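Notebook, p. 212. Picked up where the previous page left off. The plan for this session was modest: take the two constructs that came back from the sequencing core last week, fold each one, and keep the raw output in the notebook itself so nobody has to go hunting through shared drives later. Recording the first one now, exactly as returned: residue sequence, then the structure token string.
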Amino acid sequence: QVQLVESGGGSVQAGGSLTLSCAASAHTFSKYYMVWFRQAPGKEREGVAGVDIDGVTTYADSVKGRFTISQDNAKNTLYLQMNSLKPEDTAMYYCAAAGTTARMYAQNYRDFRAALFPYWGPGTQVTVSS
């Protein structure tokens, strides 16, 4: 069973930075494709960044150049470094794990399909003030 727990959220002013962490159960990264999603009130959940076992990363246009996804296999931890934060980045952030089909859609079409992800953490809130 995959377990995921996010941390590192908080409140920051526009232009600031935050780093989110996602602690995963052992061997998760060797078996699953990992993605950070976010969901703002009244909006659909959207994928912002993904990484596969080989370290290949994929980003949504809205965060490209500002966010960096990475994983530490030894620590079983997924990270999301967020720089130049904007008020529109305010959301609950989730890490999620899925199999090959989800990775294919993300890497070939930059389509992070939330419905393909069976494993989710409880989320961590990020609030960016102007």
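Okay, moving on. Second construct, recorded in the same format:
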Amino acid sequence: QVYLAESGGGLVQAGGSLRLSCVASGSMLSTNHVNWYRQAPGKERELVAHLTLDGSTWYIDAVKGRFTISRDNAKDTVDLQMNSLKPEDTGVYYCHVNWNWADYWGQGTQVTVSS
């Protein structure tokens, strides 16, 4: 059974940090590009960070310099380190993989940043 699952969300004050982790079935994370998306209340889901198989990364302008996406081969996870969090970072964060032409999503993890 194919699955993705996120963890690490929570409530944090502005300026704080959180580290999100994505785990998946089989070797899905180590054999595909991986994305982190977020969806704020009342807004569309947006791509926040992208990690390619060769380690290249891309970030939305709003998080550049504050967020880091990385692959932890020992734990077989893809993590999103979020520093200097702002209230506008609040939302549900999702891990995403496109595998065999199908989109796979985790259930999401809530991140709330208080001002």
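Notes on construct two before I forget. The longest strand covers residues 91-99.
Flagging for discussion at group meeting.
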